[in-house]
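The records we work with from here on pair a chain with its fold. The integers have meaning only within a learned vocabulary of local backbone shapes. A complete example follows; check for yourself that the lines match position by position.

:::
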Amino acid sequence: MAHEIVGNTVAEWDDDEPLIFTLRKAKRPEHAFVVGRLTISLSRLREGFEDDFLLNFKDHLIERLHKVSLRTIDNDSTVLGSLFQKVIDLKLFDSKIEIIDEPFLLCLSSVVESLTTSDVTYLRQLFNYNPYSPLFAKGLQLSDFPATALKKGRHGSQIDRILGKALTHAAVARILDTCDTAYAKGEMDIGHYTSVHLAFAVFCRPESYRQIRLEDFWFDLDQSLYFIAIIRVKSGEQYPGKVIYRVNEHLGVLLKKQRQHVVATYGHLVDKENVGKLALFPARQLMTNGSRWTHAFANESFGTYETSHAWVQGYGKAIKEMLNDDKLTLSANVLRHTIGTLLAQTGASAKTIQAVLKHASDTVCKAYVDIAFNGLIEALSETMRPAFHDHLPTLLNFRSKCDPVPTEKNIRSEDLETGKIEEIGECGRDIACENAPIVCYGCFRFHPCWDADHSINLNIVEREIDELGKRGKPFETMVKRAETAKNRILIIMYAADRYRDAMHKENSHK
């Protein structure tokens, strides 16, 4: 058995079959449950590629371990392996390929319509990583490689992808309405329901949600605030740290209920002192007698799903099925593209958007700024619905309570039960309408204050829902209207939390 050590990862293979190799972490970080073992087979590509080429490709993947995680290696090998398999299936060459040279790239360009954006992008990245690799003929330039046309400036392909996925304000409210109904009827459990609200509050990736533990969520008695610590992914760090998010009371209560549910349902599977290490959104399937999880990784990792894909299957896919609408796609990328696009409309810089979405750099975030700068919001794809401007997200108009505002345009909330008064925003009309403030959250003219306590209106609406719900069927329509208002308030509260964090971070760097 041959092996090679790269950092804390060991690459192993049998000399008799060197194209099948295993990458194994010598030691996993204590604070995160990450992929610790990966087996890659390139032997299937022998039909169209020489062994020397495939061995060089293997060396490339192993070399990449100096900079990226096993998960990234898995993704690289999958996408590039798929591209090489397409070359074989399309029968572009009469003999086995020994090297990527100009004739190879010309043939690939002739069938570019059969390739995906990922195929083209990853091949160019392969060259960019090491242009002098024995995989490539000498003298090649990046311009020799096939590329998709950029339709909207230098960030065009990213813009197309962003605009194709972002949700409207109305669509977001509808998702929350649907989940509220399903949860109230018992058709959605607390785990799914909480994961939806957390997704709209922090806009992280599935890999981050997958690794949240019970001990990562807490209530600070001194500040009377809820906090949750979430591991960053795609941060450019091999072992990324955690970002601490402050969450509002509504979400804090949901997370507290989810933690109690996890302890009650899965607490018996771990020692008492390790209950805090249980996954906040654990694997959901247990053996018939409930003595252990059905998957070995979950048993070894306190209920954590092994991969982000598995987490999405357990949470995201189930929620998507409940939405029962092909035009409403609830995924990490959809939510991140939505908030990125909307923040750009506020005039937020790429650095601010980077702070909200926790990107390793602001490069991708510049695509969101391009969308706003070029007015491309008016050319949104069908998935954003023609009615976008009728429900223009109030996110586009954030302001501060410290900003001066004419008295007739000032939106003030007053809770008669508690006596609390709060200035929550500004009306874009000449004079605020008589239905303010609750209806403001669904109005495109509303300029909410990111530093206001919008929970004052949330509490008012929740009491109204409770009161109307006791009056029976004749008041169902009014209850539904109040529930929609509640979710529109929550959307602004979640976005204001992240906008506030980003503004504070940006100001701290000035």
